# Entry
Amino acid sequence: MNDKYKCFVTVNFNKQHKPYYFGLNDQSIGYGDYIVVETTRGLELVEVVSNPDTLDKLPGNFELKPVIRKANQKDLKNYEESLELSKVAMEAVQRFIEELGLKMNPISAEYTLDHRKVLIVYVADERVDFRELLRRLNAELRARIELRQIGERDKAKMISGIATCGMETCCSRFMRDFDMISINMAKNQNLALNISKLSGLCGKFMCCLKHEDEMYTEMKSEWPAANSKVMYKGNEYYVNSLNYIGQEAKLMNKEETIYVPFEEAFKDHLRAQRRKEQE
# Structure
């Protein structure tokens, strides 16, 4: 399937974190070079983010697309021109949307390297009739127009932002794909089921719920569950809640409520675990 190539390289599209792979025979191409490739969008200039590697190290069984060429001065000039043309296209898109009163939010407009095609990405809550918009854009830009609707999570990934933790959003900083996130993950982490506080900039559940879910599942398996009974200093208590990060348990009985470190509150549990490990 890929026998016509000697090796492959990994590339990065517009500083995205998802890797893409292209086959080549020119092993002089390496990390930091710019190459021209053909995608479903057309010809694009991309940055190589790896040195050439042998085909046996390809992460998967799929057919590679070829590297067209190493970028030359003309390609680099065309790329710079496409950036300027993209700004003009975006201004035209915004102007026509406002004139037509369309309920859509344009995110980006990008020309291909040969300037034959413009990809316009937008967000909309409902179906939009953009036939007149296409007609006007074709007349003004003199290029093939492709409109692509994306969801709120993809929008957040593209434009980035500062999350509630004070850091750049996970999706734009390092995530390659989106995972399924459910309210059960918030329950597993003993979080208050306040949708507004559990939602990220995109309005969907925060990705960190998924990142931390496995850790909480593992920690829960190591300690007694909430509402279980424990003996502490000769008195019986039930476990009201557990702070897994602070390693502190809230113990209650009819007489008092106390906060005790895990290692003190669950001595019997720890001894039972050690005996089990020794068996």
Summary: The mean pLDDT is 88. Residues 73-100 form the longest helix (28 residues). Residues 223-278 form a domain with the SH3 type barrels. fold (CATH 2.30.30). The chain has nine helices and 13 strands.
